[in-house]
Amino acid sequence: MTKICKKCDVEMEITSQKIKRRGNETQNIPTECYCPKCDHAEYEID
Asked: What is the mean pLDDT of the chain?
């Protein structure tokens, strides 16, 4: 499923990433979509 940027009508790319916390804990971040053209970012809300 691809998202389209509302600003410039470009297909948004998806970033899925994890953040390192103190120690060995990792925290999941919600899937983030960003537009490669205008660098606008949106979060996937399920």
From this structure: 71
Break the chain into its structural domains and give their ranges. 1-46
- How much is the pTM? 0.44
Choose between 16 and 40: higher pLDDT.
40
Pairing of strands 41-43, 32-34: antiparallel
As a whole number of angstroms, the distance between CA 37 and CA 43 comes to 17
**How many Å apart are CA 33 and CA 46, to the nearest integer?**
13
Alpha-carbon distance 25 to 21, whole Å? 5
